[in-house]
Amino acid sequence: MPPSSFRNAFPISNPGHSPTSSHFPFQQDDEITSKTTFLSFALHSFNALPLRRRIVLLSTFIIGVLLTAIMKQESLIWLLTATAGAAPILGWEQGSVFDYSGLRFGHDGRFQITVFSDLHLGDGARPGTDWPTIGVMDNVLWSEPGTDLVVLNGDLISCEWVDQNTANGLVDMIIDPLIRRNMPFTATFGNHDASRTCSTKLLADRMWSKGNSPSHQLTWTANSLGTQYEGVGASNYYIPIYSSSGSGNPELKMLLWFFDSKGGAKFDPEHDVKPEPESDWVSEKVVSWFKLTRDQIRADHGGKVIPSLAFVHIPLSITEAFRKSGQRTETTEPGISEEIINVQADDIPGGDLNFLQALSETEGLIAAFSGHDHKIDWCMKYSSTRPVQGFNPPTSANDMSLCFGRHTGYGGYSDYERGAREIIVQEDKLGQNIVDTYIRLEGGRVSGYVTLNSTFGLDQYPPVQKNKSWVNTEDQAAAEKSSFVTPSKPTSTSGDAPTSKATSNNDFHDGEGDANA
């Protein structure tokens, strides 16, 4: 059964998105000016509709004409009645300004995102780990049947080990189970997804061609900067989330923003030379696109603040500053914290501050979610009223949370239990900037539940357990030729719950991990 929240509406207009993008077959028409006649406006609106809507509207019109002739009724009255149902489609307001393809809150007013991070399929240093990773995804989705969208938040593949054809097959391995579930999915790319032999653009094209058809859309992975990929990446875009109520063109309630933090190496399969490194931060061009698009969408909605979430693979540098400051505790920001955090622009201090500035000045941005560091999975509050010691924040900062995902893949370093980050948004709480989030582990347990709200960072929660994985990652080489059987479906869903009693601060980290995580 398709998820109740799925909205399969192709765009009439797409602020900030270049019509030259190869990922979007539906192009914008010329802008309607104030001098447009009623007839040209009607033709423009009709041509901008998806094919199935045009067929329905035209069929309704023809049937109306035929019935009018047969019944000898007043034609004008009948035609007005027949086309009344098209008002939400042809309306001058939201539909003619913003009708970008997206998803909807469920009928219960709930929208849930499952975030898989750092799958690392094809990891040549840990052979035999691909199917265990798919098993983790299966177990998590079994435990979270309310999932409305799956986000693959970077490092899907260890592309330093594989060529493009192999990488395409590994992408299929990840997304085919989601397509069979009719589960909407989308991705950001990480540093391991880009190599001399592996192109993130081609990976995005693969997802788009397999997940979408002219009548059905399951994925949004794309580059909203048109045909420009050099230095900007292949996963910069947004997904609108619409209201659970209303037909035709329901109200835009939330935006999900996706950013490509790049890294890895530049694609150059024709030359067997030392790979040329790619910068590991969100490009200034992407930051400019984000600000322009964000402001245009807000203007199109009468200046209304649209709540939003952001996803990017490599975390912002303020997260490592927070870890080093000692301000984090096991009860205010519960989670594992077992390594130094590798961040955007790691070798260029302050190289990610323009991106941080753009996020923090965005009204209604509740949280940004990252992966990359396999032994970190907590959330923190970035607030001008509770500054991070030793970090000079940008000006015009609004409060927002920064969260890490859980290492999902059996590829990649770390032997902590695998899992995924869950994000639950209630439509009626969006105005209060409230989001619930936790880690769902492969065995079914919940870890690190917190509510991201105005008091997050002060509220008290129980410290998390630090269990190890089911598969001994130290002995992966012996598993290369072994077959994997997906573990039985988990039955235990008990886990951490909020509490008012604090425990001592224990922010241990061993500095292990992969500098190119």
From TrEMBL:
InterPro entries: Calcineurin-like_PHP, Metallo-depent_PP-like. Transmembrane segments: none annotated. Residues 112-284 form the Calcineurin-like phosphoesterase domain. One of its GO terms (molecular function) is hydrolase activity, acting on ester bonds. GO terms for cellular component: cytoplasm. Coiled coil: none annotated. Residues 472-517 are annotated as: Disordered. Residues 507-517 have a biased composition (Basic and acidic residues). Residues 483-506 have a biased composition (Polar residues). PANTHER family: METALLOPHOSPHOESTERASE DOMAIN-CONTAINING PROTEIN, PHOSPHATASE DCR2-RELATED-RELATED. This is Metallo-dependent phosphatase. The lineage of its organism: Eukaryota, Fungi, Dikarya, Ascomycota, Pezizomycotina.
